[in-house]
Design goal:
Shape: elongated
Number of strands: 18
Low-confidence stretches: 71-75, 106-110, 132-179
Distance between the termini: 50 Å
Strand content: 15-25%
Radius of gyration: 21 Å
Structural class: alpha+beta
Mean pLDDT: 77
Helix content: 10-25%
Length: 346
């Protein structure tokens, strides 16, 4: 590639940098390390990084590979993935253990090659720290930092039709979920289920309204006879939605939208807790939302004020919270929400 072409790509990258609260943490302080990393990237890697950053991760993209033997920046001593995530996504990021890797085939950012690692900033999410005190809700807590298996969304789109129902329609017993899928998804608007159950066979799945060139459970395809203004406003905030990923020991949710999501499952409550625990997962953050070891083989899961519920399920509300800290006490008061019905892991 001609030098002028590379210089133009670097300028485009620098225009996309995030602002920081203080000069010592800002892009100017990272400029020597960033330019040194840009110079290490191959032409095709640099072009891919520009596309990823300018699109803000709007579509599934490949790995941006940096030499593994050059893990340090010039002065700041930052690994490449931390450097780029800090430059283009989270200016207050400091350490690699604050990140969770989601997409690369090699796991742990290695991409199957010990000589390189992935530094695509949109192949990572950020782990949130819990608030104090945890009840009645808290932000996503930390868990294992790296998946051990390939996590790549590739579930195919299915045909949908309107299929409204009441609360009991999708609270299925564990035994009714087929072994061929690890979970089924049900989309709700208030107390009405919209569309059919969506079976998930791949290790991860996108749930979204607007995701260019993406695949998965597209909520925009689900028709409804009537939608209130509140539902339409909430659906407008779903955007890129979330990535739901089955990993060893549990299920993770990565918020890809521009608004918070709120999550409740039986394994999120502290041991012995009587109240409802709802996690607030901010945009760009991830959380382990279900732990198979904690779930046990139990019968009913009793929700305060709502009665029994499937103990192997996850409930996720888009943009609107519920519970003791909100005017909405029950998830059925939320305009748009998702029910995840889990199959027993092998």
């Amino acid at each position: 590639m001609f030098r002028s072409r590379r210089a133009g790509l670097v300028r485009r990258l620098w225009q996309q940098r995030c602002a920081a609260g203080s000069p010592e943490d800002g892009p100017s302080a990272l400029k020597p390390a960033a330019h040194a990393l840009f110079n290490k990237l191959k032409d095709e890697e640099l072009e891919l990084l520009v596309q990823v950053v300018e699109s803000r991760g709007a579509w599934e993209s490949g790995c941006v590979l940096a030499p593994r033997w050059d893990l340090r920046g010039v002065k700041q001593g930052l690994p490449p993935q931390v450097l780029l995530c800090r430059l283009f996504r989270w200016p207050d990021l400091h350490q690699s253990h604050e990140l969770k890797h989601f997409y690369c085939a090699g796991g742990q950012g290695l991409c199957g090659d010990l000589a390189v690692l992935c530094c695509n900033p949109h192949h990572f999410s950020r782990l949130a720290l819990p608030e104090t005190p945890p009840p009645p809700y808290f932000k996503a807590s930390c868990g294992p930092s790296w998946p051990d298996e390939l996590q790549h969304p590739s579930t195919q789109l299915l045909e949908f039709s309107c299929n409204g129902g009441d609360w009991s329609d999708t609270s299925l017993p564990w035994s009714t979920v087929k072994d061929s899928c690890w979970c089924k998804l049900a989309y709700w608007e208030y107390r009405t289920r919209v569309g059919r159950l969506y079976a998930v066979h791949e290790a991860s799945v996108n749930i979204f309204c607007e995701l260019p060139w993406g695949s998965g459970f597209c909520l925009a395809q689900l028709p409804a006879a009537y939608r209130s203004c509140a539902v339409q406003r909430a659906r407008g905030k779903i955007g890129r939605g979330l990535l739901l990923s089955r990993e060893p020991g549990g299920v993770w949710a990565y918020n890809r939208s521009e608004h918070p999501i709120f999550v409740n499952s039986p394994t999120l409550s502290p041991p012995g807790a009587c109240g409802l625990t709802v996690l607030k997962v901010l945009p760009g953050y991830s959380a382990k939302v279900f732990d198979y070891e904690w779930a046990g083989d139990g019968g009913g899961w009793q929700l305060p004020g709502e009665g029994p519920c499937d103990p192997h399920s996850i409930r996720i509300s888009f943009a609107k919270g519920w519970g003791p800290c909100y005017s909405r006490q029950f998830i059925t008061s939320c305009p748009c929400w998702l029910e995840v019905l889990l199959n027993q892991p092998c």
